[in-house]
Fold this protein.
Amino acid sequence: METKRLARPDLEAIEHNILLIRGSRVMLDRDLAVLYGVPTKQLNRAVKRHVKRFPADFMFQMSPAELEDWKCQFGTSNPNHKMGMRRLPYVFSEQGVAMLSSVLNSERAILVNIAIMRTFVKLRQTLALHKALAAQLAELERRIVGHDAKISNIFDAIRGLMAPPKTPPHRIGFQP
């Protein structure tokens, strides 16, 4: 019996499938189904069989408005275009993806889950780096504002010394 070698999912491809919806980083059910190598219908069926494992912060269904916003990102001009979807898609947070791999319980699901977790960690590290850089930039701006005020005071003092006096100087000596 020959075993198939499973390819590791591409981290960049996973990163492009992570969306920001309702303030959370999530992945669509259809993107996860492609990664796990199962039809979306089968993935959703497995989730519905184990619905107690997926609270609202692990998985939720997109609203029609959220779906429209998501479709606008692709430049879909026809509002009636369904993009191959019959119903509103489910989205899974990082914790939901971890739970999903336990529900699907296959070798491929384990590999995909590891890759997705690494991608979420990489995104968190990138965001933390950006926050640190933003804080450093704000500190530099604060310092520069202070320097600008001090330099402005120095220039004002120099201009004051260079300007001719407002009243003529008093002559020393005999005045006719």
Notes: Residues 11 and 83 are 24 Å apart (CA to CA). Strands lie at 18-21, 24-28, 59-61, 90-93. Residues 1-5 have pLDDT under 50 and may be disordered.
